[in-house]
Amino acid sequence: MACMDGSKKWIAPVIGAVSLLCATGVGVAASASSRNTASSDVHTAARILHLHNAERQRLRLPELKWNVHLEREAKQWAHELSRKGRLQHADRAVRNGTGENLWMGTAGYWSVDTAVNLFIEEKKHYQHGNFPHISRTGKWADVAHYTQVVWRDTQEVGCAWITARGNDVLVCRYWPAGNVWGRKAY
Fold first, then answer.
1. N or C end: fewer C-beta atoms under 10 angstroms in the chain?
2. Count of beta carbons in the 10 Å neighbourhood of residue 45
3. Which residue numbers delimit the SCP domain (predicted)?
């Protein structure tokens, strides 16, 4: 399974489940069926936003605001990924220059908290520098989920968590996009 833009995938088997992450590729500055009901969608959105903002607060960064338009676009792409059965970033033109974090795992084995926390756990490899020189491993893709979550200039996020075809899929869209060449995350 390949990710676009030279990004990295992570495989973590747990209790027979496979979780995959695909980090946002080179960012550019730019201004199935769901198991969720409307009520649980609101709860899930609140959890995702809380987890993002908790990490941003830890770094004294401005909080993100939830964007329902980004959420809608993320949901459409999550359904497309479910149909494909693999992670792949949407074309930058299709996502209007927004940043994107992706995650997929075997349905029912993972929580949305776990998926978002896997983005944030990449901070263990993060080193403060100008993108792409931001990882202790020498591979920027090892921290690209994390840096998108904490990118100072990012103001809004919209995500979708769906279950279809035996997988849970999380797609998060960020505006403006992070991971901009030559810039610091914060």
1. N
2. 20
3. 43-182
- Spell out, as residue ranges, where the chain has pLDDT lower than 70: 1-39
Res 29: pLDDT = 27
CA–CA distance, 14 with 16 (Å, rounded to integer): 5
- Rg of the chain in Å (alpha carbons): 15
Residue 140 CA to residue 25 CA, distance in Å, equals 9
Residue 150's pLDDT is 98
| Structure confidence at residue 39 (pLDDT) | 61
Alpha-carbon distance of 153 to 24, in angstroms, equals 16
Residue 156 and residue 59: Cα distance in Å, rounded? Answer: 17
SS3 27: strand
Extract the tokens encoding 174: 């960020």
Instruction: Give the Cβ contact number of residue 151 at 10 Å.
Output: 26
Cβ atoms of 10 and 118 closer than 8 Å: yes
What is the full DSSP assignment across 36-105?
--HHHHHHHHHHHHHHHHHHHHHTTPPPPEE-HHHHHHHHHHHHHHHHHTS--PPPTTTTTT-EEEEEEE
Classify residue 109 by its DSSP letter: S
CB 56 within 8 A of CB 142: no
